[in-house]
Design the sequence.
């Protein structure tokens, strides 16, 4: 299949890679219909993230259609249209029980600091990402969400990372009615953070970036 | 940067600052050189500086910009990826006094038990030396000025 292939800092290309296969009964194979490049992908691209291996496929913001399910997948069936959150998480460890899906204990053996992320180097678990035709989605009953019929695909793919992250940024700021909020960074996440700040009752929102 | 934000907020600073930039921030040459080009630390901490300096006292800094798990002067990448809450301040003493006094009265806390050295103020230089060099099992030193033990007449005192 065609997949993004990391060849070293500032060098990526589209290459033929073997299609992923079910490796665990809880896996699903998703055929990607939309994938985004995230601002944080640029850190990978610039060679700043440790253990980024040549041959790795990036991409943690993707939606697609379920093409195959493992024997232990019950909530998804072939043909379902899903959006896949960028965290790879198990749903049952201490951290997942506390809704800290970005800090799952079970999906990333390489680090005690970060949970697992699709396509974000072996530091984040080594899972190949969604900038490809197909992705192996582990723990498919837990992560992916079936996209409701009334949600546009473009909105759905932004729900995998950018919008929730911007929203959480505002939520963590504990914004009170009338607060002045400054958002540094006018990229997608910053823009969503600003929007969320307005929704949370901020009196003034200032967004800062270079021109 | 902080100056601009202060000007815009009546010199208070913002209530909340959000870092939506992360480790490849532009805007500070030293940070970019040490953090991005030479990688002496894991990325430029520029926006963290701006957040901390632009927010008002007691305000919130919310970080979603990505930093790596490798070495930073402050391991902010680990803090981000672990989802930590960092809270800090100078102690707001007045607020704690009533409760602490109650604890002392009830005998639950005996603060003076930690005092190890009582030194006349004239010997302050020695006191510093002892404390700094960790000599003589010094834990806590009380300095006593020359006329400290003089009793002044106090209303309702039946001095006997």
Sequence:
């Amino acid at each position: 299949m065609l997949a993004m292939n990391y060849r070293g800092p500032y060098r990526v290309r589209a290459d033929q890679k073997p299609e992923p296969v079910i490796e665990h009964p809880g896996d699903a194979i998703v055929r990607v219909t939309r994938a985004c490049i995230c601002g944080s992908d640029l850190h990978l691209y610039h060679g700043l993230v440790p253990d980024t291996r040549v041959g790795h496929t990036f991409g943690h913001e993707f939606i697609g259609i379920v093409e195959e399910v493992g024997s232990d997948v019950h909530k998804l069936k072939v043909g379902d249209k899903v959006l896949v959150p960028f965290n790879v998480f198990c749903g049952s460890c201490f951290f997942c029980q506390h809704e800290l899906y970005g800090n799952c204990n079970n999906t990333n053996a390489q680090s005690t600091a970060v949970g697992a992320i699709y396509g974000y180097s072996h530091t984040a678990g080594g899972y190949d990402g969604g900038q490809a035709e197909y992705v192996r989605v582990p723990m498919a009953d837990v992560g992916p969400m079936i996209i409701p019929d009334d949600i546009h695909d473009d909105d759905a793919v932004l729900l995998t990372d950018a919008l929730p992250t911007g929203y959480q940024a505002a939520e963590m700021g504990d914004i009170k009615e009338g607060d002045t909020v400054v958002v540094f960074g006018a990229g997608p996440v910053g823009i969503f953070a600003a929007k969320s700040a307005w929704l949370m009752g901020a009196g003034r929102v200032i967004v800062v970036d270079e021109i | 940067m902080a100056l601009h934000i202060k000007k815009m907020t009546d010199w208070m600073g913002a209530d909340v600052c959000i870092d939506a930039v992360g480790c490849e921030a532009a805007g500070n040459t030293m940070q970019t050189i040490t953090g991005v080009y030479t990688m002496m630390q894991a990325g430029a901490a520029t926006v963290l500086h701006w957040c901390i300096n632009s927010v008002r006292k007691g305000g919130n800094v919310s970080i979603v910009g990505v930093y790596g798990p490798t070495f930073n002067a402050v391991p902010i990448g680990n803090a981000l990826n672990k989802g930590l809450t960092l809270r800090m301040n100078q102690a707001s003493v007045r607020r704690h006094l009533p409760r602490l006094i109650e604890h002392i009265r009830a005998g639950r806390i005996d603060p003076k038990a930690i005092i190890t050295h009582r030194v006349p103020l004239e010997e302050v230089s020695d006191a510093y030396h002892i404390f700094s060099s960790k000599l003589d099992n010094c834990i806590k030193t009380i300095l006593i000025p020359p006329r400290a033990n003089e009793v002044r007449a106090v209303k309702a005192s039946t001095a006997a």
